[in-house]
Design a protein that fits this description.
The protein is an alpha+beta fold. The protein folds into two domains: about 110 residues, Metalloproteases ("zincins"), catalytic domain (Zincin-like, 2-Layer Sandwich); about 45 residues, no CATH class. The strands form two sheets. It has a three-stranded mixed β-sheet, with helices on one face. Helix 1 crosses helix 2. It is globular.
Length: about 170
């Protein structure tokens, strides 16, 4: 697995070098349970906590891809940038003028893995698995939530259907 702390420190130095005034980051750590995201930033009383999914960190992964996600999350710590609004987007564009990152609003596993690899990984990591009966898309969840309790109440975004069946 890639060294997240080394890559995160490089990103922080790069942000400093171009004058990005990020917030107080308490920790940047690996999340081994994440199934629906590659990175997340949470604001708590003591500062910002960033988590990066272990799925982004295999030894063969490209450092630039990993650092793109880390920088994406660091930008969320800038005042007024917890969402993907105009200020966040402007900072992402600014950062990409200096560094070869691809800082997008939403990265996904499809950017790094084949469909077969994703299904294999998600099958091992996910506690709950659902499938849309119309298009066949698999939906993975790891925590009990309203979706897990009542999947019939939700529409699948890609095909606008609500015929979702629980597999596990």
């Amino acid at each position: 697995m890639k060294n997240l702390q080394r890559l995160a420190q490089e990103c922080l130095r790069e942000a400093d070098a171009i004058g990005i005034k990020y917030g107080h980051i308490v920790e940047i750590k690996v999340n081994t349970r994440a199934v629906g995201w590659l990175g997340i930033t949470r604001k708590k009383a003591d500062g910002y906590h960033i988590e990066i999914s272990d799925m982004l960190l295999p030894d063969w992964a490209n450092d630039i891809d990993i650092k793109s996600t880390i920088m994406h999350e660091i930008l969320h710590t800038v005042h007024g940038c917890m969402n993907h609004g105009p200020k966040w987007k402007q900072l992402a564009e600014y950062t990409m003028r200096f560094y070869p990152y691809d800082i997008s609003v939403k990265g996904s596993l499809e950017d790094y893995y084949t469909d077969a690899e994703i299904h294999e990984i998600m099958d091992k990591k996910s506690k709950y698995i659902f499938r849309c009966r119309k298009c066949g898309k698999m939906i993975y969840k790891n925590r009990m939530c309203d979706f897990v309790r009542h999947p019939q109440l939700y529409k699948h975004d890609d095909c606008e259907e609500s015929d979702i069946v629980r597999i596990r």
